[in-house]
């Protein structure tokens, strides 16, 4: 007869959910990085213009090209840091899940 520890099962499911959420978060950050890269390329072609329209959190505003480029580069740095944090957390969660799966029931 096999006995299953309900607490271990709940912990396993919880870890799996967190892992899934972190993977999705990384996908979102990576998409945002691709969008930023695309935006920077477009801005490089518009260097002769003084100002451009920018969408920031559902708000359209006119901004200088140089300022927009600076903001995008800052966002890229932020995204890199966040991706690294999430990857570290993901690694820790995966290790916990592996230990739990290898545990004798």
From TrEMBL:
Protein name: P53 and DNA damage-regulated protein 1
Superkingdom classification of source: Eukaryota
């Amino acid at each position: 007869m096999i006995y299953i520890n309900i607490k271990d099962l709940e912990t396993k499911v919880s870890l799996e959910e967190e892992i899934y959420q972190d993977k999705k978060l990384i996908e979102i950050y990576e998409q945002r990085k691709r969008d930023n890269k695309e935006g920077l390329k477009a801005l490089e072609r518009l260097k002769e213009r003084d100002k451009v329209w920018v969408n920031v959190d559902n708000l359209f505003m006119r901004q200088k090209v140089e300022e927009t480029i600076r903001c995008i580069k800052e966002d890229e740095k932020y995204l890199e840091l966040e991706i690294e944090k999430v990857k570290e957390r993901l690694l820790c969660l995966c290790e916990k899940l592996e230990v739990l799966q290898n545990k004798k029931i």
